[in-house]
Design a protein that fits this description.
By secondary structure, the chain is of the alpha+beta class. It has a single domain, classed as Methyltransferase, Cobalt-precorrin-4 Transmethylase, Domain 2. Helix content is 35%, strand content 29%. Strands 1-2-4-3 form a four-stranded mixed beta sheet. Strands 5-6 form a two-stranded antiparallel sheet. Strand 5 and strand 6 form a beta hairpin. Helix 2 packs across helix 3.
Length: 125
């Protein structure tokens, strides 16, 4: 059975980077796919991948992760507003999908959608 867990941005907002990574990794290690509101910063994503690499073993094969940003407005005002927000708050708008590498086989991304290809490896060795 495929399990998705939605993680709203306010659930992670008050956590420091380390606790945020631990929370996400705990969910992923339960063989769940995380649908997270917002995006991780580049630094946080690197930390998550580093933490994952340290925990890889026979049972846990790693993670797959991809983010999707909403389309920025095409006018100059929207561009200016989005640039200002990114400068001071980082690029955290959008959605992130992540999950265990033994379940997520591929994530295809284009500007408007994410396609998630999964397989169920339970029962196989």
């Amino acid at each position: 059975m495929l399990t998705l867990q939605y993680v709203p941005s306010d659930e992670l907002a008050n956590l420091d980077s380390d606790k945020k990574m631990q929370k996400l990794l705990k969910i992923i290690k339960q063989d769940k796919i995380v649908l997270m509101e917002g995006k991780l910063t580049n630094k946080e994503e690197a930390e998550l991948i580093e933490m994952t690499m340290e925990q890889i073993d026979r049972k846990f094969k790693g993670i797959e992760i991809a983010s999707l940003e909403p389309n920025a407005g095409k006018d100059f005002g929207s561009f200016l507003r989005d640039s200002f927000i990114k400068l001071f708050f980082g690029s955290t708008r959008g959605m992130t999908v992540m999950g265990p590498a033994n379940i997520i086989k591929e994530i295809r991304r284009d500007p408007n959608k994410l396609q998630l290809y999964t397989s169920n490896t339970r029962g196989r060795r």
